Amino acid sequence: MATLYLTDQGTTVYKEHLRFVVCVAPGEKLEIPIREIDRILIFGNIQLTTQVIAACLQEQIPVLFLSSSGQYRGHLWSLNPLHLDSEIIQIKKHKEEDFQRETSRSIIRGKLLNSKQLLLRFNRKRKVATVMQAVEGITADLASLERVDNLDTLRGYEGIGAARYFPAWGQLITNREFQFAKRVRHPPTDPVNALLSFGYTILLNNVVSLIIAEGLSPYFGNLHYGEDRKTYLAFDLMEEFRSPIVDSLVLKVINKKIIKFNDFEPTRSSAGIYLTASARRTFLDQLEKQMNEEVSHPDLQSLVTYRQAVGLQIRRYKRSLQRGVAYEPFSRLA
């Protein structure tokens, strides 16, 4: 178990010898060896004892605190003095326009390549004409991307790619209960957008935990930026994994009816549509399986899981910071 997801409200976690004991309800306990946990994601009202917190700090297990719907609140991590050197380099590179531009170009290239590959893969049997038109458009965008010489125009290609990709992606939904017209984020107003938003949120927080574990700050991004203190580097490095991990999973759980139309409910606070508690657990289980699916990565001869691939990309980014080598994105070739 790489990630421990704690979603049931009122759950308490305490430490007993070399195990964490998760108490979901009176008399209902789950014991997990601490050595099997790489990270913990906490959704909403979950209690950790001080012994659990101390063990996580000692064993370098990042704990991410999220709202019950999955929005990032903060994280627990024991700072290593060696990490300060990496953050100083990040701050220096954050001010270098050439580094930001070329890194952003690579990230967008990876995102577009993987978006194109997903459309080709899922359209292999269906042969929808509008999907092939989107593929052709993305192919043209990839060629144009290499000729762009300023950061703002590069960022525009991310939006152009999304405008081509999502309508075509929606054509690959075969379950007639579900409809997808366009990407709606805050809040998601239909089941498909709810699945995409929740999947991206969980992917983001997995990327945050891996960035922290690598000794980098998740806040100094290149492609993404803003006045708010957000995890912009995690936004950057998750881009090339959106299609192969989340988008493909959402198509799978919808088309195979693993998630059903009645697995969603509205909320009073945000007027959005979200997964029910039981369906959220089902989706998290499917997402964890997806994160552990094996793929090829050019840095290793053997197959790696998607989670390991994310970690390898973070190390690639770290090398680009420290050694001045160009960042190369991850691309799923089949």
Automatic annotation (TrEMBL):
GO MF annotations, alphabetized: DNA binding; endonuclease activity; hydrolase activity; metal ion binding
Required cofactor names: Mg(2+); Mn(2+)
EC class of the enzyme, as a word: hydrolase
A Gene Ontology biological process term: defense response to virus
InterPro entries the record matches: Cas1, CRISPR-assoc_Cas1, CRISPR-assoc_Cas1_C, CRISPR-assoc_Cas1_N
Protein keywords: Antiviral defense, DNA-binding, Endonuclease, Hydrolase, Magnesium, Manganese, Metal-binding, Nuclease
Pfam families: Cas_Cas1
Enzyme Commission no: 3.1.-.-
Domain of life: Bacteria
Binding-site list for Mn(2+): E158, H224, E239
Keyword Manganese part of the UniProt annotation: yes
Subunit and interaction comment: Homodimer, forms a heterotetramer with a Cas2 homodimer.
NCBIfam families documented for this protein: cas1
PANTHER family named among the record's database cross-references: CRISPR-ASSOCIATED ENDONUCLEASE CAS1 1
Biological role: CRISPR (clustered regularly interspaced short palindromic repeat), is an adaptive immune system that provides protection against mobile genetic elements (viruses, transposable elements and conjugative plasmids). CRISPR clusters contain spacers, sequences complementary to antecedent mobile elements, and target invading nucleic acids. CRISPR clusters are transcribed and processed into CRISPR RNA (crRNA). Acts as a dsDNA endonuclease. Involved in the integration of spacer DNA into the CRISPR cassette.
UniProt protein name: CRISPR-associated endonuclease Cas1
Originating gene: cas1
